[in-house]
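Handout, section B. The chain below has 60 residues.
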Amino acid sequence: MEPRPRETPMERYDDGLDAQLIDPVVLDEVELLTEIVIAVQTFARRLKPVEVDRLLGLAD
């Protein structure tokens, strides 16, 4: 008997619809969070919000 291929979580849950959820607001938030993680990863201490804003170019 051949082993059955592993299913992904989405293959196990098949509601019969072939639709993708694209939410621009969520995508923007994920992109911003990614930029924050990249910007602060080199610091050994917790940054203040104003420092994070400065790193992201958002400071006045």
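Note. The CA atoms of residues 10 and 19 lie 12 Å apart. Compare this with the example in section A.
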